[in-house]
Amino acid sequence: MSAPTTFNGWVGEAKGAPLVWKEMPLRAEDEYSVDMDVTHCGICGSDIHTLESSWGPAKYPCVVGHEITGVATRVGKKVTNVKVGDRIGVGAQSGSCHECKRCKAGFENLCSGQRTGTYNGIWPNGDKSYGGYADKWRGDCRFVFKIPESMTNEVACTFFCAGVTTYAPLKRHNVNKDSVVGVLGVGGLGHYGILWAKAMGARVYALSSGTKKKDLALELGADGYAATSNEEDLKPLKGELTHILCTGTGQDFKWETYLRLFQPNGVFINVGLPSWNFPEVSPMLLVLTQASICGSAIGSPAEIEDMLKFAAEHNVKPWIQKYSMKDAPKAVEDFNAGKPKFRFVLEN
Ligand SMILES: [Zn+2]
Ligand SMILES: [Zn+2]
């Protein structure tokens, strides 16, 4: 059977244009390529930033979606990690150079050569990359993962971006039963942050601007909640935390508010990408807290494998709401209205 050359997907043709369902070219096959029939795709904030060109001009036409699960339908000659019929997934990254120092050290997510985003990117062969608001996807086996037996495709998909973005740094910074973790922002990423930190055995406090998210955060398993706008709420946390995972915060952000919540040597991990810069940090504050401030970008293939195993072992389940793939424009509209609790999943 000859390989398909096209797929159908929801196409953003220009900034602000409505999504249209149409036929698009699949990238060329090669010995590492994997074809998948898409079953599910999560909706990520990055999809909206790309469609709206808010992180810089997008390469229209775009088909977004980078929390993709499906079933492998065709694999290249050198593919050994998946076979036809396997349930598989792919996240925000679909390619790296495999040759730079970072790739060789297992930091493919930080590749300093050609790094292919799952959508709005360019494959090494020059073809454009298209995401999972679609019926089919073709990519590279080195960024494709088998889904654990115990996990359905609809549950699995959001692990591939939101899941690993929050799992990888908590694991890297050794969150465990002795940790006290503050999760700043209770949205798609923050909800995962709470689930992971609890599964790692930590005590977890959800931190969010008002009181709106309090009940949900406690329902997710947080041991406590503090409204960051309320000094009285934050007082009992002073000097208590070992880690803060920052998934989102307002532009009124102040380092003092958060670094003083740390025990000595606390770690502030940023995974959010607001369009503004963090404020200056006082050298005195850094010295006298011995805090570390760092960031984290999605996760490497090894971290994705590790996350899937951990999630299956600890039965970590994201909170998702499903929409039919044909209702993707409505799902995007509801996403933009802030309705996800906590992740939307499109289903074919
Ligand atoms: Zn994403
Ligand atoms: Zn590289």
Automatic annotation (TrEMBL):
Cofactor: Zn(2+)
Pfam families hit by this protein: ADH_N, ADH_zinc_N
Keywords assigned by UniProt, alphabetized: Metal-binding, Oxidoreductase, Zinc
Source taxon at top rank: Eukaryota
All copies of domain Enoyl reductase (ER), residue ranges: 16-346
Family assignment from sequence similarity: Belongs to the zinc-containing alcohol dehydrogenase family.
Name listed for the protein in its UniProt record: Enoyl reductase (ER) domain-containing protein
